[in-house]
Amino acid sequence: MGPDKKRKFSKPQAGHAKRRKTLAVDSKPKRAVRADQLLWKTVDVPEMFDDAEGFFGLEVVEGVDIVKEGDKVQFVTAVSGTSVPEESEFEGFEDSPKESEEISPPDQPPAETKPKAKKAKKAKKEPPPEAERPSESTAKDDDDSELETNVFSKIHEVPEGNDDDDDDVEVDMSQWEPLNLSPEMISTIARLKFLTPTPIQSRTIPEILEGHDVIGKAATGSGKTLAFGIPIVERWLARQVTTETKTGPIALVLSPTRELAHQISDHIKQLCAGLKKSPYICSVTGGLAVVKQQRQLEKADIIVGTPGRMWEMISSSSATLASLRGISFLVIDEADRLLKDGHFKEAEEILNALDRAGPTNEDDEESSDDEKTPGHARQTLVFSATFNKNLQQKLAGKGRYNLMGDAESLEYLLKKLNFREERPKYIDASPVSQMAENLKEGLVLCGDMEKDLYLYAVLLLQPTRRALVFTNSINSVRRITPLLQNLGLPAYPLHSDMIQKARLRSIERFKESGSKQQDAAANKNVNKAAGILIATDVAARGLDIPGIDLVIHYHVPRSADDYVHRSGRTARAASSGVSVLLCGPKEAVPTQRLVAKVHAAAEAKGAAGTKRKSEIVHTIDIDRRIVARLRERVVLAKKLTDAALAKEKGGKDDHWMRAAAEELGVEFDSDEFETVGTWSGRGSGRKQKEKEARSVSKAEMAQMRAALRELLGKRVNTGVSEKYLALG
Ligand SMILES: Nc1ncnc2c1ncn2[C@@H]1O[C@H](COP(=O)(O)OP(=O)(O)OP(=O)(O)O)[C@@H](O)[C@H]1O
């Protein structure tokens, strides 16, 4: 693209202030800061965690008050802890309140909820006099080394603002020039205000446009969706110029989860929003009406689907299969997950069906791999932040660790995906770390049976806006969500056993949480409470929900890859975030190994910007006095939750047994069935507890609710401040 075609924008000055070496002091007014900005320091490891080698002890922070006013919790300090120690890679955050900022009273929207974009714009128009500028560093003001390594650093320079004047803003898109994109594509990217391609985009887009098969690896949140989205749309645009008639879909994107499929199609739709004519993009996932999806498939240009539903559609319609055989791109997103157990079979069926030569009817079923279409026209694009281990395990057989290298894993992919080239381009844009750059990792040590209590304490104490809590089971999601709700926190569930509508509703509510909304009736702005999403690993891959500041691993992740992907739901793009592991004493060592594994490659390479071992996972000390004072609330909330769940479950069991009894033509007596069902083997303790919980009367429930309400209304004197923690 010549310079004449370039859309120009006078680049605002980044204004990177150099990091200050010392920040003093006592004369400073107190100010609210985020938990991760406090000056953590190491103290001795308690005896019980002696074997937790490498966690470097608990940490304490002095001179900090914890203030809870209304439903807002903040750390308030005058200490230079907020300056952030010199070696730390976490050097202030763009949403840190300025020194002069007061903590907002609960009835006023907190200062940090002001749209950042507008603030930035205003600041550019009227730069404050030197003396008035905040003296603390912000993310924008960080030192140069961070800017060099942060792939999204340039985004800070992007003028954001009112969508209405979006089209009028001219931006310098010269960074995209080497990618040889059409002017139309450049201008639609400019609308998104993405001034710079991310490394994975810079490296993969030209290869894809040249017609190569590509395997792309890059850290979570580093823009992989557009790394394949842009060239697909670019090819579609080119096709519009040369062909008048519709030629069937151009691309099929396979995604492991429904939510991710919808997100990918939304993301590509956003990209296309600035085009004169857009491709028709549809998502084909379970939980939605098949007939409607069939209609959409007929006119689709880009299809994003989950393997299960896609296979259902392909296997039931030869027309669909025929049209898909003509695609130019097959994208496997989150490839290591998609090619893993659970999804693998359907993905494999789809791959085989697409590659099978000959007629597209049921006779196909008998054809074998040997009959694959040789030299097909389709390009295959494979993306993920993690690649090796799961694929390797798959090859080696369940439960066995094996020592396959990168090359062998690649062989496996080559074989399965039937790339059209003998050697696809393997592009690793995050050779140093799979973890996002602005992620801070922490660990809270607690008793095995105290996770609920510590989860509540972390949520109550952290002043971040949105949290995503990962558990390893659907039942835990079902229990923790109402538990937190009973404690007055806005928790929403997400797991694969929910109906699709409920899944989407949970995500929507979570996304809306923490935002300002206009209450028409009251004619004023209402500040919605920051939401908490309680999820299984169904939310671990790819979900791009802006504003998640905190990821909590209620259960430690099952694998290093799961840790990477779960933690990757925060600190996406240019933003920062914290990932906190809740660990029982026995979990500490294996978890330490797991995290070390994630960081091992980076350490081995000793690359610049690599976190030192001591900086990888900070052990976070939650003031045990606060925890002790929260215990009563949690115990009561748990009793209430258990009783409600047991009643619900009992009701379902009763329903099932009543139906069975009716079918058998016998009388149903629930007490009798209870007695018959009693045994003394494994699980009888749980059964007994369930029975007790179920027998809690309505009056007792009401009593407990009232008592909990009273507890939540009481302030918890933390002993570290004249101020108090109050409501949950
Ligand atoms: N060139 C760019 N400049 C600025 N922001 C970008 C750019 N490309 C993508 N983004 C934004 O970065 C965010 C993360 O992108 P995306 O969801 O594609 O990440 P990802 O690498 O696929 O992450 P994951 O591995 O977790 O799936 C999105 O909100 C997207 O809009």
TrEMBL record:
Residues 125-140 have a biased composition (Basic and acidic residues). Coiled coil: none annotated. InterPro entries: DEAD/DEAH_box_helicase_dom (IPR011545), Helicase_ATP-bd (IPR014001), Helicase_C-like (IPR001650), P-loop_NTPase (IPR027417), RNA-helicase_DEAD-box_CS (IPR000629), RNA_helicase_DEAD_Q_motif (IPR014014). This is ATP-dependent RNA helicase. Its EC number is 3.6.4.13. One of its GO terms (biological process) is rRNA processing. It comes from Echria macrotheca. The Q motif is unique to and characteristic of the DEAD box family of RNA helicases and controls ATP binding and hydrolysis. GO terms for cellular component: nucleolus. Residues 174-202 form the DEAD-box RNA helicase Q domain. The keyword Transmembrane helix does not apply. Belongs to the DEAD box helicase family. Residues 205-405 form the Helicase ATP-binding domain. Residues 1-31, 79-146, 352-375 are annotated as: Disordered. It comes from the Eukaryota. It holds the Pfam family Helicase_C. It catalyses: ATP + H2O = ADP + phosphate + H(+). Residues 1-22 have a biased composition (Basic residues).
